[in-house]
Write a structure and sequence with these properties.
Strand content: 5-15%
Number of strands: 13
Length: 367
Amino acid sequence: MSERRPVRRRWLALSLLAAVAFLAAAFAVFRGDLIRYSLDPRIPFQTYKPPPAPDYAAATAWALRPAGSGAADAAGAPADVFFVAPTTFDGGKAWNASIGDGEADRIFRRVMAPNYAGPFVKVGRIFAPRYRQAGLYSLMTLREDAREARKFAYADVAAAFRYWRDHDNQGRPFVIVGVEQGGTLAARLLAEEVAPNPQLRARLAAAYLIETVVPAGRPPLPPCASRGEVGCLAAWASAPQDDPARGQTVLDRALVWNGQGELENLQGPALCFNPILGATSDALADARLHQGAANATGLEWGARPAFLARQVSARCEGGILRVSTPRSPSLRPSGDWLDQRRQPGFNLFYADLESDARTRLAALTPR
């Protein structure tokens, strides 16, 4: 009897270890699905009560807005940049974020602003509205509720743009920048607010829709075909050069606006602007032409990051910008599961975008 007990204990210990190992393996396999499920508000958008609308006359409705941005500052910076931020709200209980969401604002200030608005600091004054953005989950599903949440967010962006146009811009040249979800919203803004207005179009240096799928057959503005061209659209979505399947997944899951203001699946090819070449082109941009990437996460707003030049090559293939693996580890995705589904904490084309926007603004200004 005494000999059997140690044997039973060993079997019990082994069984427990096997069970723990099985659960750990199952968690690793299904972790993404579990997190994605936790982000689902699980309430129909039609019965969802959204947070209060922002008042863009109030400073609190803007994540970035220069002091003295009205008529009294007309002799200041020669241009404006209207910046629509990417997703920083994870979701969970709500489809759309309150503009007072502290965690979403922290991610914007620490990661998104320095990396994606930062390249345009030397272009003009940055205006970045807070808006009731759709949560990260809305970008992971094609459900109608998620589409409604994204359409709802557009109303805030349009209201912010009109306020900026009527109260702050004062007839200056301007650039529009949108990233990811913000890029999709900015695409509709271009179609509905800029393209039909000849006075606005005449003052637009360029629009940059970063990591944004735009239909090549019906872009809201003419694509930027060469450096120095003005009033044009630079739009692209990227994928690693060594991961062909990922690029196709981006296109398969992309939602674009139709003529009725509805989000629908992409039909046909997508636009692809190459930031290294400064053109919508399928030519190869060799790494020798790459002006500089930057990891600006955590930098104080307005601080200029160190550039890492000649890090990547890029080429448009099938509507996707295929980008080589950067040499520097600081330019590779990191963080937890959620971090890796937001825009990364670096910008591979930081210096290229800064140079491109300044060139187009200089070409526009004499006119």
